[in-house]
Design goal:
about 120 residues, two-stranded antiparallel sheet, 5 helices
Length: about 120
């Protein structure tokens, strides 16, 4: 179960969770999502919250609904790739801002990243 941040709307946190699962491939293109009731139980939230999550994901074309059957991850891999790129750009932007906030220059950030990547390999 997710530990919710009280400062961020719950539906946005669940959306982010599902987007990460789609981006990472843990939810495959065309894969059926759990039912509203199952997800409400899983996240410990009201089914209306899950409905809102699904509506927003559908509005972003990340899922589609088959009436009477359920909700599915989009089969359009371009949509998924675009979402991944947007998520990565946001993470990088947040990281750079945080590093700048504690006094690192862009050059120092790049050096630290290169050092860390080399160390990890």
């Amino acid at each position: 179960m997710l530990k919710f941040d009280p400062n961020i709307p719950v539906y946005l946190q669940i959306m982010e969770f599902l987007k990460k699962k789609i981006a990472s491939g843990n939810l495959q293109p065309g894969e059926k999502l759990s039912s509203v009731r199952e997800m409400a139980q899983m996240f410990g939230v009201n089914p209306n919250t899950i409905q809102r999550v699904l509506q927003e994901l559908e509005r972003e074309n990340l899922i589609f609904t088959e009436r009477g059957i359920g909700n599915f991850v989009t089969k359009d891999e371009r949509v998924i790739a675009k979402m991944r790129e947007e998520m990565a750009a946001k993470m990088i932007e947040d990281f750079i801002k945080s590093m700048n906030d504690i006094g690192f220059s862009d050059k120092e950030i790049i050096q630290l990243l290169e050092k860390k990547i080399k160390k990890e390999r």
